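Form 7-S
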Amino acid sequence: MSSIIQATEAYVKTINGSDSSGHDFSHIERVRRMALAIASEEQADLFIVEMAALLHDTVDDKLVDPVTAWQDLEAFFDSIQLEQQSRDDISHILRYISFKGGVNAGKLKSLEGKVVQDADRLDALGAIGIARTFMYAGAFKDTMYDPDIPPRELYKVNYREPSTAINHFYEKLFKLKDLMNTETGRRLAEERTQYMEDFIHRFKQEWHSSQRPVN
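Output:
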């Protein structure tokens, strides 16, 4: 299996290696490490978890053309002679791991998928999550903050329309702690979300040049 993992690392680097939106290989590597740690606790299949963690952003439609990406992925699976059951298990995870404004809720069925999803969501939280949010906003030319643009209530309806980096915390990131699948994920998400809430409070204080509490 080690040769397959090494080939997969090389394949992922050709796709995500030069990313500047917070989905680069360092993000992939953090998700892999966290996913394997959670998988050990949950007794999930480590090979499927590691492969899915490595590949989870290679077919993400906010980063790549999905039709071409899925074709390339199938060709890669052929090149490493990956057995059909593993292909199916990994592809299921890649298809339904993303938040997508909530439209994927309940579609991810496997334990391995839930483990990788928790690991990916944890990397969207805490200090790293804050940094990645602003990287993403910069890459896609979103405004940092505009007090006159409120967070969207029906996020799945307005999914991926232009907004602001600060709104992203309310529209997605603060919701993730209640969507975690594993006990480890829930515990870490609570801690990291609190860190982000403190940051947003301080950000708004500085933005408005006020020491008054900001809702």
